[in-house]
Amino acid sequence: MARLFFIVSGENPTLPYSEVKSILAAEEYPHQVLEELTQVLRVEADVKCVEAVRFRSALAKYCCLEIFKCKSSLDEILSNVRSVDFTELTSGGETFVVRVFKIRGVSPHLDCLALERRIGGIIYENAKSRGVKVNLKKPDKVFLGFLTDNVFLFGLGLAELSRKKLMERNPSRRVFFHPAALTAKMARCMVNLAQAKVGEIVLDPFCGTGSILIEAGLMRCRTIGLDAKKYMVKGSLKNLELFGVEPECLGVADARFPPLVYESVDRIVTDPPYGTSATTLGLSMRKLIEQFFSSAIDIIRDGGMICVASPSTLGISEIGRKHGFKHIESHFIYVHRRLTREIAVFKKP
Predict the structure, then answer these.
(1) CA 37, CA 69: separation in Å to the nearest integer?
(2) How far apart are CA 336 and CA 340, in angstroms?
(3) Side by side, which strands form the sheet with 133-134?
(4) Confidence label for 307 from pLDDT (cuts 50, 70 and 90)
(5) I want to staple 42 with a disulfide (CB 3.0 to 4.6 A). Which of 21, 34, 46, 94 is the partner?
(6) Which H or E run contains 207?
(7) Residue 105 burial (CB < 10 Å; 0-12/13-18/19+)?
(8) Which H/E stretch holds residue 24?
(9) Model pTM?
């Protein structure tokens, strides 16, 4: 077990932290949450978990091995740096660089570039006997410092997460497009919140253009997609083929009456239709969701989880509990003046 910290997206106050914790739970890494700071999650866990977060996460930015945490004063920072034996963190002949970032412009009394030079100089003096040198362009190791909430976190960078591939899978880049389609980032985050594991069956009963199925498939889950509209199923299939995802089943079906046997699904991740461009089969949104949960309780296995999006005004947590599910958590995302989206997570007891 080691102390790690994850720098996460600041676009939502709760979702990024829960995504990382859900990944650790899904991958069955024992962990203890130490602290949540602004855009920082500190945990104690096996270092091997970093690779799982790198592979799965949509909202984490950096994963670091924590070296120290202190107050955001220059004297304390430099004193802590001097107390570290960097010969234990570097190998002979390696190169390194120091990078320091401010989260949301905190600590105006500190200059990031000046801190990088001061810290880098101390590390060089400490480890130069081993032939360690500075390399600003292609270093072997990156030491990262983050200023947030009047503290300074310093660590060895273990992974930097790029969103480039996620952006390449956004709705506008696909063969088949619909204005209500989930972004790849949100779809992947929702699969993570449901704690889907490799080889498990993930069902999206309102699959639309296939956003959730694509992300679940790329995370090596087995996928089933259903939609009431034939043209949506055909379009979803084209999008899945574009990204090399082969579903277990993709078919035209009513989510209220899914053609699936009892307890045949491990996870349900879905974004039911709502809004002006959506089709709800002539039903009210509430009636559709009520009947969806009524069928879901039968087809999902004991201990299985659901992650579902809905308008916050619907009261989806109450609906889920009414149909026998345990409400785990909810996250709220402001979309526009008339819509705040609730991302709710449930578990079948």
Answers:
(1) 12
(2) 7
(3) 31-37, 40-45, 2-8, 60-71, 151-160, 141-148, 95-102, 133-134
(4) very high
(5) 34
(6) none
(7) exposed
(8) helix 15-26
(9) 0.94
Q: C-alpha distances in angstroms, 296 versus 25, 124, 284? A: 23, 59, 18
Instruction: In whole angstroms, give the CA distance from residue 249 to residue 232.
Output: 14
At residue 279, the pLDDT reads: 53
Q: Could you tell me if 139 and 157 are in contact, meaning their C-beta atoms sit under 8 angstroms apart? A: no
pLDDT digits (tens, 9 = 90+) for 174-212: 999 998 899 999 999 999 999 999 999 999 999 999 999
Query: For position 188, what pLDDT does the model report?
Result: 98
What does the alpha-carbon distance between residue 68 and residue 26 come to, in Å, rounded to a whole number?
Answer: 28
Q: How many whole angstroms separate alpha carbon 296 and alpha carbon 260?
A: 10
Long-range CB pairs of 277-286, under 8 A, 24+ apart, other chains included: 277/178, 277/179, 277/180, 278/180, 279/228, 279/229, 281/228, 281/254, 285/310, 285/311, 285/314, 286/314, 286/319
d(CA 16, CA 41): 9
Question: Per-residue pLDDT for 33 more than 70?
Answer: yes
Contact of 286 with 248, CB cutoff 8 Å:
no
Structure tokens at 138: 């292609």
Q: Which amino acid is at 110?
A: L
Taking a C-beta distance cutoff of 8 angstroms, is the pair 203, 222 a contact? Answer: no
Which single residue is written with the structure tokens 């949960």? Answer: 293
Q: Which residues does 233 contact at the CB level (< 8 Å), separation at least 6?
A: 207, 225, 226, 227, 250, 251, 252
When pLDDT is averaged across residues 122-135 and rounded to a whole number, the result is 95
- Widest Cα–Cα separation across the chain: 75
Amino acid identity for residue 83 in this structure: S
Phi and psi, residue 317, nearest 5°: -65, -40
Given phi > 0 = left and psi -120 to 50 = alpha, else beta, which region is 29?
beta
Q: Dihedral, CA atoms, 21, 27, 29, 32, nearest 10 degrees? A: 10
How far is CA 145 from each of CA 62, 99, 112, 197, 301, rounded to the nearest angstrom?
Answer: 11, 6, 9, 33, 44
